[in-house]
Amino acid sequence: MTTPDSDPRAAACAGFWQAVSAEIDNLRTLPAHDLVQALNALLQPLFPRLAAEVAGDPPAFKLVLTAHGSMDDFGDVMALAQSSPALAPIEVEAFRQRANDSFAIRMDGFELASADILVKHEPYDGLVALEIGFAKPIPMDMQDHARHMSLIMLDHILGEYDTAVKVGPVDYVDAGDSEGFDGVPLDGFAPVFDAFWRDDLGHTGVFPMGEHAWSGLSATREAADGSEVEVVVMRNDSATALLGRADLGHRLSAAMPVESGEELEEARLYEDRLTALLQKHEEGCCTHVVLEEGVRTVHFQVADEAAAITHAQSLQEDMDLPVTLDLVFDPTWRSYRIWLR
Predict the structure, then answer these.
(1) Residue 3, exposed/middle/buried by CB under 10 A (0-12, 13-18, 19+)?
(2) Which CATH topology does 214-337 take?
(3) How far is CA 136 from CA 107, 179, 190, 304, in A?
(4) Are 84 and 94 spatial neighbours (Cβ–Cβ below 8 Å)?
(5) Between helices 32-43 and 8-27, what is the axis angle to 10°?
(6) 141-173 confidence digits (pLDDT tens)
(7) Does 4 have pLDDT greater than 70?
């Protein structure tokens, strides 16, 4: 079992919350600006890439943990938020959430309102690709500045997590082509985005019940010696409903050599048993199976990585077939999405 003493991230989380708990009475008395500085002074030594922000007024404030949109650090944000103790009346929230109203920002003397930004969208490998234009003329020397500001505002409108995990490529309309660009104003884009994610891309967030639908795919890749290697994939089409769920951000992979019919049968039995264990309480979902150069690798998106590893290891006790496990943080389901093209 993983403990705070054996897991550096768990130890860092415990250290931060112990420090906050020790200072809680003093923190509740600070004005907002000083409170943010004090919280970050406790956070930075343990999580230098994260930041603490405050919503509301002390003493009943909301502590918001952010990675400034850096998906590489989202795992730390989630672990830190999930390990928080009861600190009533203080709430703890992972990631900057969506802005509820239209707003404007001013940077370096240039102001941009959310209604000034126009957005079009289309599917891109299971994500949402965006094209951005502007509803008002942007001086040529402010084009790059306005584009940077639009990304900051997009993060506020969609929220930090959805912007990083669900948005694909972002392109901009050339300044000369902005006239007549019929995008949706950014301040009204969130419901359009959500409907497209759910209804058009099929990412409903609802765990698929009953028999899942599968597709068979094949591709080739170039090996180190220049030869072509065939890759055969079985893709779980039903799993796409769960893509983007924040609680299924880790990918567990189990690789097994299958050089004979007996080994293939044992690998399939292992996959079925592990799938049943993970799906029983919606702890995970099998997304795809890859056969390449005599190795069969089954992939799952899982909620609790420690529990998933325990399940996977427990099933190996009666097996002759060696199983190599791998666990990575993959909130965009990249390994699955490459087979949606």
Answers:
(1) exposed
(2) Alpha-Beta Plaits (3.30.70)
(3) 17, 9, 21, 47
(4) no
(5) 150
(6) 899 999 999 999 999 999 999 999 999 999 999
(7) no
Residue of 181, 89, 94 lying closest to 133 (CA atoms): 181
| The residue count for the chain | 341
CB 261 within 8 A of CB 340: no
Q: Are strands 51-55 and 228-236 parallel, antiparallel or unpaired?
A: unpaired
User: The tokens of 302 are what?
Assistant: 């899982």
What are the boundaries of each domain within the chain? Answer: 8-94, 104-200, 214-337
What is the residue type of 222?
Answer: E
The single-letter DSSP state of residue 96 is -
Q: At what angle do helices 261-280 and 305-314 cross, to 10 degrees?
A: 140
Amino acid at 43: L
Residue whose C-alpha is closest to residue 37's, from 29, 46, 27: 27
User: Which amino acid, 185?
Assistant: P
Whose CA is closest to 168, among 125, 199, 138, 132? 125
Q: What is the pLDDT of residues 317-332, one digit of tens each?
A: 889 999 999 999 999 9
Can you tell me which residue has the tokens 């906050």? Answer: 20
